Amino acid sequence: MEILRIENLKKEYGQGENAVCAIDNINLSVERGEFIAIVGPSGSGKSTLLHLIGCVDQPTSGQIRIDGNDISKYSTKEQALFRRRKVGLIYQFYNLIPDLTVRHNIELPLKLDKRKVEQDFFEDIVKKLGLTDKLDRFPGELSGGQQQRVAIARSLIYRPTIILADEPTGNLDRKNSAEIVEILKYFNQQLKQTILLITHDEKVALQARRIITLEDAKIVRDEINE
Amino acid sequence: MNKKNLPIFMSVLITALFFTMIFYFVYTNVQDHYKGYRLISFADAELDVKLFSNEIKQLEMIKEIQTAGGLSEELWSARFQEAMLAIHFQDAGINTMREYSNLIEGRFAEHKREIVISQNLAEKYQLEVGDKILLQVGSRYTGEQVLSPTATYTDKESFKEQENREYTVVGIHGNVYNKYLDISFALTMPEENRKLSPYIRFKDFKAAYQNREQIKEEIEKQLGRRVDLNFSEIMMHYYGVKESGMKAWISTIINIISILFVIFLFVFFVRNIFRVWGLRKAGELSMYKSIGTTNSQIYWLLMKEAVLISLLPILIGHGLGYLLMSGIYYQMQKTMAVDKIVFMEFSLALSAVTLGVALFIIMLAVFAPAGAIAKINIIDGIRGNFYAKSRKRKRYKDLWKELRNNNMASIKSLRYITAVGTIIISCFLIAVGISDYFSEMSFLESDYNINITYKTGQQEVPPVLKEISRHFSEKKAYISRSKYFNMDFEWPLAEEAMASGIDKQLEEYFEGEEKKIEGMLIGIEEEQLNQLGGKKGEFLLRNLVQEDIKLPLAKAKYIRYLDSPSELSIYLSGAEPATKIKITKEITGIGELEEVIRPLEIQIFTDLDTQKELIEGHNKAQSARSVFELKMKVEDSEITDTKDYLEKTLKAGAAFDEQFNLVSGDEIAAKRSIDVRVLLLIIGGIGLVILLLNITNGYACINLSLLSRKREIGSLYSCGMEKEGLIRLYLTEFGAEEIRSIGITALITAAVMLTIDLLSSSISIKVLLLYFPWLFFGVFAVLIYGVNLLIYYFALRNILKQPVVELIRQE
Predict the structure, then answer these.
(1) Would you call B720 and A109 a contact, using CB atoms and an 8 Å cutoff?
(2) Chain B touched by A153 (CB under 8 Å)
(3) pLDDT at res. B60
C-alpha cells in the first residue's frame, strides 16, 4: 500500500541568478513498511528532501502526498499537526530539549496534542530502547547513543505513519551506530514502521531494503538491496 | 564601531549616565546642605565683647582660628532719593566668612566708599554694579523720637540729614526686609575706631569644639580680659558635636553605606551587561582555548576589549549625566524661585573618581564571563552547547512546569534588574509622599483668600484694621488675636479622649517632660462672639482635640478633649502667674470663623477687650508684641485690586514700630507645592534614566535568553508545536517572571515603609500608604514592565520568523 508519493518535487533557494536548486524534479513512491536508505554526496539534496517530507520546509513546486493527503498545500497549523501525528523526525544531533527529563522528552508530542500517554506502549518502547532506568535523567546526563535512543522513542510514541531519520548515526561510534540501526530495523520489522534514513555510512545503507541515491538534486539510482 | 557592540555601547552609556547623575546629585546635595547652614550661620563662634578691627584681626594668630571678622550692631539710616536705607557694616573677615550669601551680583565692599545694595533698590532706580550713588546719611524721627533704621517707613516721619556720602555700588544683594517695611538693605565696610562684635571661623570645627576651653584661654590671653566664647548652635547641630557614641557616627555610616550601595548597584548592572556580552563570545574564545590560550589570557583578552569598547560610552555617558543633572538642578532652582540661580559645580576630582571607579568596576565585571567561559568545555563552547550544560535542573511531574522552571535561570537576572529600578523609584516616591504629608500636616484649605498679619506693640486693635474691616463690611471677614497659653494637666480628659489614647499621645509628645495642655486664647470682635453664642466677658471653650495627631489637619477627626471643665488655670505666654478663667460654655463649631486646632491644643474664645485685660494683667504677655490677624474672603477676580487697596491703606496706617504682611490664598498654595514639585522633577529625571537602563539591559538579557533557547524552539517546532502555542507558552513564562519582579518590588517597598514606621515617631505606615503617589508609580511600573514585555515579544517574533528548518539546523 502506497504511503508516500512525491511528484515533480522542486525546491529552490534564493532568487534569480543566485537561485540554488536543492531538489530538482523528484518523483518517488514509498510503500508502507519499507526501510529506505537515502545516500549521496554532500549537497545532493538528501536533508532537503527529508525536511520537505517532514513538513519542516516547503517545496517551491510539486506535490507530496502522505496517506493520500497533499502536505505541500498544508497551512502552518496543519503542518504542525502533521509533524506531531504523522511523521517522526530523528536528527543527527538528537534535538532533545535539555531542560526536560527523558520521560518528558518522549511524551512531548503527545502532550502537545493533548493526548494521554499509553503507559503499556510507552514502557514497551522504553524497555526496547534500554531507557527504563534513564527516564528521570536530563539529556545532558546521557551519552550520545542514549540520547539518540530517546530521540527515537520520541518519534515512535505517537505511532507515526513514517519515520524520517537524518544521519541518526552520524554522531555516534561504530558500536552505537550498529545498535541504533538494529533498533530501527526492529521497529520496521515488528511494527511495520516505514523508515526513510539518510546516511553517509555504506554499512548502514546496506542494512536498508531499498537504497535511493541522490546527486545534484536528482534521484540517480533507486534500487532494491538484495 | 562594530554593529554587534551597539547594545553594549548603549548599556554602558546609560549606566554611566545614571551613576553620574546619582553621584552629582549627592555631591550637590551635600554642598547645598552645608550652604544652607552657612547661610544662617556664617561663623562658627562669636565673642561676647566688642573689639576694634585690629584686635579682631589679631585673633587669627591663634592657630585653630582660620578667619576672624567683625560686625557692627549699630546701623545707619540713609536716604537715596525717595528710598530709605538701613546700612549694615561688616569687615573683610566677615566678607570671607560669607562665601555663601544672598549676594546676587558683584562682591562685598572692600573699602569704606563701596556699598552693596538690595535688589529692590537696584530694580526701582535701575542701578547696576559700578554705579555711583549719593546717600544722605542721617536719622529718622517721629516727633522728637529717633527711630531705628529698621523701623517701618511711614509718611509720618521726618529725616534729618547729617552728611552726604558717595558710594560705588559693588554688589547687589537679595532683599532682606519685608517689602511692607518699605526700607532697603545696604552693606558696607565699618568706620575705623568703631567697635565691632567679633565672629570666628575655625580651621576644624570639631577639633575646636573639643578644645574650646584651651582656645578660650588663648583668646583671653591675647585680649588681656575674660571673654565668653559662644559656639554657633546651628553649626554645632551641623557637625553633630553634641551627639555621642553611635549617634555621632550614624550619618558617616549612612553615607558610607549609601556610597557602597550605589557602587554595588553599578556593579550589578554592569556585570550583567558584560556577562551577556562575554557569553556571546564563548564560541570564539573556546577556539582560542583549543589552541592553548589559558584562562588568565582569556580574561586579559576580554578585559582589554571591554575597556576599549567602554571608554567612549563612559565618557559620553558621564558628560550627558552631568548635563542632565545640571538641567534638573537649574529647573529645581527656577521652581523654588531662588534669588540667584547657580549652575551645578563641576568637580574634576569627583568626575575623575567616577570615571576611575567605572573603569575599575568594568574590569571586575569581566571576571564573570571570563569565569563562565573558563568552565565551558572547549567543544561545547565551539558548538554553542554551553547554554544547555551550564545550569542545574530540577525534575517536576508536569512537563510544562519543568520546562518553565528550568528555563528561568536564563531570564532571572532581568527580574532583579527591573525590580531594582522600580525599587529606586518607589523609594523616591516614598520621600515625595513624606514631603507631601508634612506639607499637608499643618495646612488646611481656607475659605478666606486674603490674610493680613499685623504686629504691634499696642494691645488695642489697630485702627487701620478696624478701618479695613469697615470698608469691607459686606465681605466675609473678621479680626482676631491668638495668644498662646498652657495649663497643668489637672482637668481629666473626656471619655472619648481617653478611649482614643490622647493621654498616651500627650506623654509621647512631651517625652520625659511634665505633661501639659497647650492652647490658644483667641480674641475676636464682640459681634463674632455673639454669633458663637457668647457675650462680652465670657470664655467659650472649643473642647475638641484631634483624634490621631499623625494625620494631617485636612484628614483629622476631632473628639471631645476635656471632661466638661468649668474653670481653667492658664499660663499666658507659658509664664507665671496662672490666670483663672471661668468657662461659660463648650462649643464645637465656630461658624464662619476659621481657627485651626493644632495637634493636642485646645482653644478658648473671648472678645478682644476681655483678652486685652487679661494680657495687661500679665507682665510677660504684655511685653510681647501682639499679632492681629484679619482674614477676608473676596471674589477671585477682586484679589488684585483688593490687595492694592489694602497695601496702600496699611502703609498709610502703620506706625514706625508696626509691621504687617499681606498674603493671598494663591500665594500660599504656590509656596506649599514647591518641595513636592522639586522632588517630582528629580524623580522624573531619574525615572527616565532607569527606563532607558532597563531597556538596554532588558534587550541584552532577553536576547541572550532566547538565543539560548533557540534549539529548544526548533525542537518544539519539529515535534509539532504551533507558532501561536509557542508564543503563548513563552510569553506566559515571561509574564510570570515579571509578576515575580513586581512582587519583589512590592516586598522591598513594604519593608522600607515598615522600617520608616518603626524608626519614626511621626510617620506611620498608614500615612505612607495614604500619601504614596500610587498613580505615578503605577504609570512607571506599567511603562517599565510593558517595555520589557514588548522587547520580549518582538525578540521572540524575530526568532520565530526564521524558517523551522533554520531553527532545527545545528551546525
Answers:
(1) yes
(2) no
(3) 94
* Confidence (pTM): 0.73
* A83/B711 CB distance under 8 A: no
Interface touch A100/B389, C-beta < 8 Å: no
Query: Residue B811: what pLDDT?
Result: 42
Q: What is the ipTM of this complex?
A: 0.84
- Give me the residue from B389, B393, B715 closest to A95, CB to CB: B715
**What pLDDT was estimated at residue B143?**
86
Per-residue pLDDT tens digits for B184-221 = 999 999 988 889 999 999 999 999 999 999 999 999 99
pLDDT tens digits along B138-191: 999 988 889 999 988 888 889 999 999 999 999 999 988 888 888 999 999 998
| Amino acid, single-letter form, for residue B352 | A
**Set of chain A residues whose Cβ sits within 8 Å of the Cβ of B399:** 100, 104, 107-108, 111
Please tell me which residue of chain A has the smallest CA distance to B409: A99
CA separation for the pair B808, B811 (Å, rounded): 9
Question: What's the domain range around B597?
Answer: 450-633
Using the 3D structure, point to which of B581, B610, B633 is the last residue of a domain. B633
User: Using CB atoms and an 8 Å cut-off, which of residues 105-144 of chain A contact chain B?
Assistant: 107-109, 111-113, 136, 138-140
Residues B620 and B681 in one domain: no
Edge-to-edge strand ranges of the sheet holding A210-215 = A87-90, A162-166, A194-198, A35-39, A210-215, A218-224
Say how far apart CA B479 and CA B2 lie, in whole Å. 77
What domains lie within chain A, and their CATH numbers? 2-96+161-224 (3.40.50.300)
Q: Which of A84, A95, A98 sits opposite B714 (nearest CB)?
A: A95
By C-alpha distance, which of B537, B642, B639, B520 is closest to B590? Answer: B520
CB of A117 within 8 A of CB of A124? no
Query: Residue A150 and residue A128: Cα distance in Å, rounded?
Result: 11
pLDDT digits (tens, 9 = 90+) for B640-677: 899 999 988 988 888 878 888 998 887 777 766 676 77
